[in-house]
Amino acid sequence: MNQPQSIALFFPEIRELLAEKNYSLLKQVLKACSPLDFADVWRKFEEEERLQIFMLLPSSAALKLFEILEVEDQRLLLARLNEENVTPLLDNMESPDLAKIFHKMSPRAVKKMTSLIKRQDALAHIDTLMKYPECTAGSLMHPEFVKLPPKMTAKQALLRLQAVTRPGQKEHLYSLFVTDDDGKVMGTMSLQDLVGAPPDEQLYELMNSVEMIKVTPETDQEDVSKLFSKYQLTSAPVVDTESRLIGVLTVSDILSVIRQEATEDIAKMVGTRAKDLREESAFKIVFFRMPWLVVTLCGGFLISLIIQHFEPILAKALALASFSPLIAGMGGNVGSQSATIIVRSLALGHLEGKKDWAKAIWREFSVGVMLGGIYGLALAVFAYLIYGHQYGVEFGIVVAIGMGTSMTVAATMGAVEPILFHRIGIDPATATGPLITTITDIVSNFTYFALATALLLHK
Fold first, then answer.
1. Is this prediction's pTM over 0.85?
2. How far is CA 252 from CA 174, 217, 427, in A?
3. Which letter does DSSP use for residue 432 in this model?
4. Rounded distance, CA 65 to CA 36, Å?
5. What is the CA radius of gyration of the chain?
6. Are 440 and 406 in contact (CB under 8 A)?
7. Cα(154)–Cα(203) distance, rounded to whole angstroms?
8. Residue 16, phi then psi, degrees to nearest 5
9. How would you write the pLDDT of the chain (459 residues) with one tens digit per residue?
10. At what angle do helices 319-347 and 354-391 cross, to 10 degrees?
């Protein structure tokens, strides 16, 4: 059997065959390509080309491709394909994946799509999932699971699993959950534990506690991803207020969440949105980036007023201006480093509670003091060698303290702002980038020129 080839090898040929409308040869080319590779280059094709490619793919390859496309691309395909092509997709996809797509569609479009689904159990599951807000555990969970009573033996449990599990549910069996007569979750075990257990051993003797890994359907997906990362989970139970098992989350669900959250955090840290990565419209990109640049602009106006206020010292010691960008730039760099570390630590759940927060702030403050001292001393020596004969040793002192202040303030603010935003319920990634740089520039410039006025203006 021929191995699937990378789409990159065939990309020019596919475009050419599409232009020529040579669909018979194109079908042969598409058979040689892995459907998984199409997701990486999907947006490189025009919308009409994507539709043609999808319809020419073998049904199994089309389903694989559809499952890994972005939700927006899935929604566009469903809107453009005819019912004959849409029905197999809807019938073969998992309920949580369909609910994720339907959350992005109008009620009218959802009604049309659900009318094409033949499986009544799938419709019931989708209806359940759609009741929960998007990006919560309830909207991501699998409502299909097997209930195993605590007094059932390992052999009986294996026979039960073989009898009731459909092929599409295999991934849900990596971890199993034991429930009592009321449906309350009591414990969990892996399929490997069950297979390796003595046949007559009862499940309550095999199961592990779930108290630390239970989540409610309202739990935000970011909090769920932290839980999976902290406890190295392959699955987690979703329970109601009475601790009854209502769904299961698997690691494959959370991997896509982690990627999504990481992309959003990276975008926010530079003052834009995740949509910017895929957006082609320059006007929309401007709209995404503009808000936080306003903060930078206002900060720039304030810095200009500060410099204007200290115009007398600048007129007397013009050399001060040559070091101002360097001092501000070094502060901005160390501030971004501190903020990135703190934001990521918060995302991974490494900083929990006031004690951890205070420790992190003190650590970054100490880092700022040490880095500021080292680079400040180096810059002081350089400044004295160039301008010492004209302004004396005081000039080197001013530059050194300016550098030290800038880096210390930046490192401290890089820790304080994300933690403060986290504390008041705002995504801490929003606190990085433009905001920290702007505050650092304001404080460092004011300190730098105020100190210069005090030490140099009398000379």
1. no
2. 11, 18, 24
3. S
4. 6
5. 30
6. yes
7. 6
8. -65, -45
9. 444 556 666 778 888 888 888 888 888 888 878 777 777 788 888 888 889 989 988 888 888 888 888 888 888 898 888 888 888 888 888 888 888 888 878 888 888 898 888 888 888 888 889 999 988 999 989 888 888 999 999 999 999 888 877 655 555 666 789 999 999 999 998 888 888 899 999 999 999 999 999 999 999 888 888 888 888 888 899 999 999 999 999 888 787 777 766 666 665 555 555 554 555 566 666 666 666 667 777 877 887 888 777 777 777 667 888 888 888 888 888 888 888 888 878 877 778 888 899 999 999 999 999 999 999 999 999 988 988 888 888 888 888 988 998 899 889 988 898 898 888 877 776 656 667 777 778 887 888 888 888 877 655
10. 170
Cα dihedral 265, 269, 273, 278 sign: negative
Could you tell me the two tokens for 386? Answer: 């160039």
Query: Which helix or strand (DSSP H or E) is residue 425 part of?
Result: none
**What are φ and ψ of residue 245, in 5° steps?**
-75, 120
Q: Which residues contact 454 (CB under 8 A, 6 or more apart)?
A: none
- Cα(96)–Cα(256) distance, integer angstroms: 13
Q: Which candidate, 50, 57, 64, places its Cα nearest to that of 27?
A: 57
Residue 111 CA to residue 107 CA, distance in Å, equals 6
Cα separation, 443 vs 437, in Å, equals 10
Q: How far is CA 1 from the centre of its chain?
A: 38
Output the six-digit token pair for 22: 């040579």
Q: How far apart are CA 250 and CA 238, in angstroms?
A: 11
Q: Name the nearest CA neighbour of 20 among 51, 47, 52, 63.
A: 52
Measured in degrees and rounded to the nearest 5, phi and psi for residue 200 equal -95, 5
Task: Read off the amino acid at residue 390.
Answer: Q
Who's near 393: CB < 8 A, 6+ residues apart? 384
Among residues 146, 142, 134, 140, the alpha carbon closest in space to that of 224 is found at 140
| Strand partners of residue 187 | 178
